[in-house]
Amino acid sequence: MKITRIELTNFRNICQAELEPEDGLTVIFGKNGQGKTNLLEAIWLLTGAKSFRGAKDAELIQRKQQFSIIRAEIETQDMEKEIQISICPPGSPKPGRTAKVSGVDQGRASNLAGLFRAVVFEPNHLSLVKGSPEGRRKFVDSALCQLYPGYLAEYRRYLQVLSQKNALLKHYRRTPGAAEMLDIYDEQMAQAAQKITQRRQDYIATLAPLATQNYANISHGAEKLEIAYIPTAPQGNLQEILRNNRKEDLRCGFCTVGPHREDISIFINGQPARTDASQGQQRSAVLSLKLAEATMIEQITQEHPVMLLDDVLSELDEGRQQYLLSRMEGKQIFVSGCDGTMFRKTRGKMFHMEQGTLKPWKKGELDVSSSGAAYSD
Ligand SMILES: Nc1ncnc2c1ncn2[C@@H]1O[C@H](COP(=O)(O)OP(=O)(O)O)[C@@H](O)[C@H]1O
Ligand SMILES: [Mg+2]
Fold this sequence. Notes:
This protein is α/β, with parallel strands linked by helices. The chain is 38% helix and 23% strand. It has helices at residues 36-45, 57-60, 127-130, 133-147, 151-170, 178-218, 238-244, 246-252, 273-276, 279-301, 318-327, and strands at residues 2-11, 14-19, 25-29, 68-75, 80-88, 96-101, 104-108, 118-121, 225-230, 263-268, 271-272, 306-310, 333-337, 349-354, 357-361. The strands form three sheets. A six-stranded antiparallel β-sheet has the order 2-1-4-5-6-7. Strand 6 (96-101) and strand 7 (104-108) form a beta hairpin. Helix 5 (151-170) crosses helix 6 and helix 6 (178-218) packs across helix 10 (279-301). The chain is globular, with a radius of gyration of 23 Å. The chain starts with a strand and ends in a 16-residue tail after the last strand. The relative contact order is 0.17. It binds adenosine-5'-diphosphate and magnesium ion. Magnesium ion binds next to helix 1.
């Protein structure tokens, strides 16, 4: 899978930009705050997902402008398509992110799920190992949304019943017939939850050996990474488990069992990585997981996803940089960073980003550092 052309209009600080990326490596370099992450964020939005920075749609539109457009031509083994994402502010006739594919309206951008696939790797992803279970659930859910277009709808259905159930748990004593209503919610929840937990468990079961292998390669076999999905209830009759848990739920005022409380365990050499691993080990673990995510997409869809590496390469030591770049040989990959020097000798196409303006960079001619003198000779 690759992008052959991308064009942005009024996207964050990028008023207008056009880019014909390389089939392999494309490098965007420039000083901090110039628009590099903005560009990668725009590419990510072509997947139909929300911003990987957790931004609201309205924040994506350039200040003082009324809309933003991302247009890209994508190519897979058997098709060529043009994806267009329009972003409009709340209160406009078509608020939020809407999509067209080769000129045909698709409604909400989330309907695109599965058409264009990408894997993003950015500095905040260390929280995948260090942070709360929510970040790990997001990791697996975001991967499943790209792989199984129906997953998002399944998950939303579950969250809807969950919020109804939580509202009832809060007002249990004051609600006539609350026990019978809880029975109904539990039945609906159990149906939705079972599917979600199963998908997540299957996903992690396939991902785990790939990630373990990647970690072994990065650490030259010296260390072992183990990951596993931790459900809140053993497989079986979830409805019964929910019912048995009712006292506890009423005490807490919310539902304490189900996919919204589950987690992924990450161990390095038998110790929990969240608390015991060094920063370097945590970085290697995230890199292993991200590469495994890409491999899984390729195995399931026969297409390697587009890789977006935002500002992470400079954080990795040379061995890990080499490993990553050699693994990505022949795949389309966008890399951003402050310093372009390290890419001078690669076959990558280079672009310089300055105050939202993207300019092609001819390698070898000029200074590739991101200093103010970058364009002077
Ligand atoms: N909606 C917006 N309109 C205009 N500028 C924006 C908008 N959102 C963010 N910016 C600007 O984008 C810049 C940050 O860009 P970013 O891509 O994060 O930088 P970096 O090159 O460091 O990755 C900041 O200068 C910020 O003010
Ligand atoms: Mg950035």
